[in-house]
What does this fold into?
Amino acid sequence: MILDLKAKALIAGLVLASTAFATYKTTAWFYDAKISKIEKDAAEAQTKAVKTARSEEQKVANGYQDALNEARTRNKALQDTADIARRERDGLLHTLFTAERRFASASQATLIEYSTALSTVHGECSKRYTELAVKAEGHVSDLRTVLEAWPKWERQE
It folds into this structure.
């Protein structure tokens, strides 16, 4: 009977211990599963954030490259226009140089004709210079608008 009581107590202790161990293990598995899900969700969120950041970075890089390509094209066109203008200027300088030498021996009618031609050229140059100045001011205004409208990134701490 004492042995029977000791055996029952031992069996009850073993059952209680195995139940506690099973409860501990089940709880551990449950929390391990929760932790794994949290880690998985965090990894997915991080992966998504990295993909989004890379996508945005690529958009910015593409926009930057497009802007550079357009700027190079514009600069090439400006260089071509400047070369044409230089050639025209050099031709006018040569014409004026030649005309200066002829002024000394030119008749009054010829001098009046030169004077009229020079006035016409001066008027056309003044007109084009004014148009150029208006365009330049417009470009400055456009640039200022773009710079002021450009998103400003604030540092977050």
